[in-house]
Amino acid sequence: MVATDILFARQPIYDAHTQRHGFELLFRDSGDAASAPAMFDGEAATGRVLVNAFSNADIDLVCEGRPAFVNFTAKTITHALPFEPERLVIEVLESVEATPDVHAALMGLNSAGYRIALDDYAHAHAEHPLLSYAQIVKLEYPAFSPTSLARAIKALRARYPAIRILAEKIETREDFERCRSLGCDLFQGYFLARPEPVHGQLLPAAHVRVIELLARLNDPKADVEQVSRLVSADPYLSLRLLKLVNSSTFGVARKITSLSRAILALGLNRVRAFASLLVLSRLERKPRALQYIAISRSLMCQHLCEKRAAGEGPMGFMIGLLSCLDAFMDRPLPEILKQAPFDPIIIDAVVERKGPLGAILEATLRHERGDLEATPWTVLRAIGIDTNAFMEAFRDAVGIAGRQGELLA
Questions:
Q1: What are the beta bridge partners of residue 89?
Q2: How many Å apart are CA 215 and CA 228, to the nearest integer?
Q3: Residue 116, pLDDT score
Q4: What phi and psi values does residue 352 have, to the nearest 5 degrees?
Q5: Is the distance from CB of 270 to CB of 244 less than 8 angstroms?
Q6: Which candidate among 37, 132, 249, 303 keeps its CA 20 to 30 Å from the CA of 50?
């Protein structure tokens, strides 16, 4: 029997007819001390719940095709979300302040079709500065007296007629009947159902961080400043890249001590490539030969993509690199690539070998295996890559891979 971890807990949310409307997904420690935060961290908890729910578990099965309610902090509200809006309700914690950044983030989430719920609402009025963005307000039932509860519901209905009112922490039938008689739409609490753990197999936290960092480093929209911030947030990457740019290989006249200058000296795409390889190199117990394969494959795909279309090299490098992740992480590629919002074109190329990028990756893999007869030459010629261009890309990749392998050691 395969051992499983606790991914999160789920607690049903019911309507006035006690039919299930959705599920709140709650953070639960898997019991893995190495992967759990030393102290409770709201951002980390939200991230763990989202990753586990949408990748390590079948979200449709867990939530029975209904929406998942997940707590969001002020910081996580501002992050881009790769999840479909109809599957997710964003619960804004009561600790979130109505800053300009939060207003802008909620406005953007509304525009994108996400539903917003204000969590632990304990006011007997409808003056909360974030209410205008909410489609659901979760009343913290124990915080109200019978009089203040009625006043709060009346005020919310008067000012926001379309808002749905959810009474949470309902512990008795009397609580449920009182809230239903006052006009609440949705209900949650121990009287109806307690949270129950959802089990599954976790991708190690270190691997999740690697995938997220790879996705952010290789985001086509990321500029020099954004990449610099990503690298500077990781002392290991910062030191290795500064060491790299000051090595004799690049022959800089004066020592470079800032990441922004290092990126300008190396070039943004080269920094992305080196940083990505450095990130993978930190995964434990992987042979140096695998690192060499990752470098040479990525460079070959990059050179072939550059021969096909100017400016497509970085995407080629990325498909080559991602195609090695199953060997680095000992998990199937489709499962790994669900962990971060990679471009669908890249995922289709890596997993399904679709499109020109998929043909380039397939040809590169065939060449690695010495299976030249099965190389899709007709497809390659159709996208502007003949045999001579292919072999030239191979020679260039092998030469550079040897030198870069030494630098990354």
A1: 69, 115
A2: 15
A3: 97
A4: -105, -5
A5: no
A6: 132
